[in-house]
Structures are given as structure tokens and as C-alpha cells.
Model the fold of this input.
Amino acid sequence: MDIKQQCVKSGAQYIDPDRVTIEYLNRSYVMAVPGMEISLKDNLAHCQDIDLRDRILMLHYLITARGTPPSGKLIGFRQLPGGCFEHGSFSREVLTPLLDRFGKEPERLAEAAGKLGGSRVNYGDVAVSVKAFPRVSVVIALWRGDDEFAPNASMVFDSTVTDYLSTEDVTVLCQRLVDKLTRSE
Done:
């Protein structure tokens, strides 16, 4: 793998042949390329303190990145390769916990997302865009319930997301994002 080229494609910063800096959910991480050890840039945590799923996502993002510019077209999880088959588990593992935490008070989503560098966007009743990686953002939208309908949630992505992460990685990313949102309150 040409590490300089992958930094260009992924938006990571090339430090030297053995290290790169990568932004993930509003934090900077240093990745040692030969050993794939990852630490927070500010050295508050070492590899063993960073969740294994986060480390794997960072590695997959770096090696998968194609450098495709954003299309501006948002797609839902079902539109990802295999997403229609995996949507039930995605809904159960990602959307249900999101609704359990923010469904009755969707405004709290914006507060929690702000701690991860997210910002409000015009989608649903309350929506935020969170930059997961330099070239991958997740838009989370909530709709308030009423007498006829229960609260609802969705997550959408730029159509180029699979040029950076597999569908399985998108699922794990969304799980990690919901976990961090619910813990950041």
C-alpha cells in the first residue's frame, strides 16, 4: 500500500513513512503504519484503551479509501450493497437504541452530536450531520411521534460511502456513533 497515496485518498495526514494522523468522530489519532498501533494524538490513550471496533474502522477506512469526491446524493442504509438484507439488524442494533435515547426528546440529539463535532441540518424534525472520517459523514434524522405515529429515525450517507467503507463497516460505524452519542449526554 502506498501510504502517501492513501492519505491523499482518505484525507488522513501523512507524517512520515511509519505514521499518519486520521480524524475519527472529532478526535485525532496517530496510526503507526507497520504495526497498525493507534493512539490518540494528544497521548491520553494508547492502543489498548481504544475500542477494537474503532481501531478496525480506522484501518478499514484508510486502506479502502478511493478518494471519490462526494456526490451530494444522500442514500439510506437499504441502498448500500446488501443493505436491504441487513436492514432488520441495522434497525434493531442502531435505530432502536437511537430512538430509545432520543425519540421522546429529539432536541437532545443535537446537543449530543455537538460534542462529536456534529451540526444541525435541515432534514426530519431534528437532524444532525456528524463527520465520522474526513470523507464520510452520517446524517441522523429524527421525527417526533404523535397520536398516530411513533417516533422514527433514519441515517443517510453520501452515495460514495462504499468507496470508503463496506456495508458491514457502515453498520459498525453507526453502532459506534450511537454508542458515543448516548454516552456523551
User: Anything to note?
Assistant: The chain is about 35% helix and 25% strand. Helices lie at 3-10, 52-64, 83-102, 107-114, 167-184.
